[in-house]
Design a protein that fits this description.
The radius of gyration is 29 Å and the shape is globular. The protein is 46% helix and 20% strand. The relative contact order is 0.10. It contains 17 helices and 18 strands. Strands 3, 8, 9, 16 and 18 form a five-stranded antiparallel sheet that branches. Strands 15-14-13-10-17 form a five-stranded antiparallel sheet. It is an alpha+beta fold and 513 residues long.
């Protein structure tokens, strides 16, 4: 059989001269690349360099199991810069996906023996890996994390790309991988990061020009004089208690109102607003919206402390930590932001939804009485996936069926189903997005649009940014708002109150994201 393969691998012309075939050319190419791989490995791994001796081994060890990247992600998350915080989350998620594919798929599809490290003494790792050499999992994770961060914050991505390159080099210098293993790992990690950006789009700056933030003159309050702060100690699975302790320590002159035993939050908030110069709140997004309505009615500034589970509004105004809100109060940093009204009765600071999400909220609240919040959310999601049905509404004189209908106060930065974060809360616009269901091949069409990054071009996905919007329904539908299940209604009219709510915050004053 070997002779037969050898005979077939070579053809001859009429004069008896051998003619190269595609098979022999491929073997020649792969053989040449393999030889180049070995030569580059020998040149790098055995190069005399005290600097490489000192740096590459510790760097390679630091990147084991992603420790280096997780530490950097933690640092990015503490910067207070939204784009870096988003980059940290995207980088870690992308790293996890790249590591899984490289180690559980790539190494099994193309097993390769590790390099011979007999001649490498000083730089050789204490424990040489024994798994397949191809591809480099360290390199895949490094590229995935660096590009994932860079998708949200380009300057940080450039810096991390240099560090990722050094990690890849360290894998060759220490004899853990051949150069082509590292190149393949880089390509795999980069590909997964780019694919992830197509599915979950990064936050973009406004495509329209927005006027500079409207700064409001405010008196600095170093000790919290004139503040009345409503605190729900039970919110955020105990976060409220910690937040209350921080407020009492940082703003000793502020009055604290404990909401633990309050049944009528609307009345309590209005009473507090009458005696306050500044109305504060620490609780979930629903609590914040209710207190914001009282501050709006009394025409006094609102100070928001991150006392809930998600704290969407607090994060978007730069108050993701108690210290940031205290800083704004002490410096007198107040500006005006938009408020979204539902049927001129309900204040909405973040979002409103119809379709599957209100059902999820109802189910989650029901499960919350017996299990923890994370478990309740998982069970609620499972319930919605099994039992959710489209709702029929009238939009622009057209009847549609939908499972996903999103209405946001201000433009959200990410296109598609994952709205992401807002960079501004004072653009005077409503962000409307909805999915049209009941169409032929809708699952296949939507999947193709998501994977290709062309969801905005799909006829099944509609989005618009407008100052006013209405929808109607023949049967009552539940309209959720700011994390609350809301009431069943047959009509929903949304309008923006442009820059009407005065809030303390750093991001809204500077316009930074």
């Amino acid at each position: 059989m070997a002779l037969f393969r050898s005979f077939r691998a070579v053809r001859h012309d009429g004069l008896g001269r051998p003619v190269p075939t595609a098979e022999s050319s491929l073997e020649s190419l792969t053989g040449g690349l393999s030889d180049l791989d070995l030569r580059v490995f020998d040149a790098v791994a055995n190069s005399p360099s005290p600097m490489l001796d000192r740096t590459m081994k510790p760097l390679s060890a630091a990147a084991d199991q992603g420790k280096l990247w997780f530490a950097i992600a933690a640092g990015l998350g503490l910067t207070g810069v939204s784009s870096l915080e988003r980059g940290a989350v995207r980088g870690v998620v992308t790293l996890g996906a790249a590591s899984l594919v490289a180690n559980q798929v790539g190494k099994r599809l193309h097993p390769r023996q590790r390099p011979d490290t007999e001649g490498i003494t000083v730089r050789r790792l204490r424990r040489q890996p024994t798994s397949s050499s191809f591809p480099s999992g360290h390199s895949a994770s490094a590229a995935a994390f660096a590009i994932g961060v860079g998708i949200e914050n380009r300057p940080a991505g450039y810096l991390l790309a240099g560090l990722a390159g050094m990690v890849g080099l360290s894998r060759v210098v220490t004899g853990a991988h051949y150069p082509f293993d590292v190149v393949a790992g880089f390509a795999l990690g980069a590909g997964i990061a780019v694919a992830g950006a197509q599915i979950v789009r990064p936050v973009d700056d406004h495509a329209i020009t927005v006027a500079a933030p409207h700064r409001v003159p405010a008196t600095p309050r170093p000790d919290g004089e004139g503040l009345v702060i409503l605190v729900n100690p039970r919110s955020g699975d105990g976060t409220g208690e910690r937040v209350q302790a921080e407020i009492e320590q940082s703003l000793p002159a502020a009055e604290i109102v404990d909401l633990s035993d309050v049944d009528d939050l609307v009345t309590t908030a209005r009473d507090a607003a009458r005696r306050a110069e500044v109305l504060g709140v620490a609780g979930g997004d629903g609590t914040v919206s209710t207190v914001a309505a009282a501050a709006l009615e009394a025409d006094i500034p609102l100070a928001v402390f991150p006392g809930g589970t998600f704290n969407h509004f607090a994060k978007d105004i730069g108050s993701q930590r108690v210290a940031r809100t205290v800083e704004a109060i002490r410096a007198g940093l107040v500006t005006r932001v938009d408020v979204l009204w539902l049927n001129d009765a309900q204040v909405i600071l973040n979002t409103s939804s119809i379709g599957a999400y209100p059902e999820f909220v109802v189910a989650r609240d029901r499960y919350n009485h017996s299990v923890s919040k994370p478990i309740a959310a998982i069970r609620a999601a499972r319930h919605v996936l099994r039992h959710s049905q489209p709702v029929t509404v009238q939009v622009n004189d057209e009847e549609i069926e939908t499972l996903f209908f999103f209405v946001g106060n201000g433009m959200y930065g990410t296109a598609g189903f994952f709205p992401g974060r807002r960079t501004r809360l004072d653009d005077g616009l409503i962000d409307v997005r909805y999915l049209v269901t009941g169409q032929r091949f809708e699952t296949l069409r939507l999947t193709a649009s998501l994977l290709s990054g062309r969801i905005k071009n799909s006829r099944l996905f509609i989005d618009a940014q407008i100052p006013e919007f209405s929808l109607t329904a023949a049967e009552p539908i539940r309209v959720a708002h700011d994390g609350e299940a809301g009431e069943e209604q047959t009509a929903a009219h949304y309008r923006v109150d442009y820059r009407t709510l005065k809030v303390y915050g750093t991001s809204v004053v500077t316009g930074r994201s």
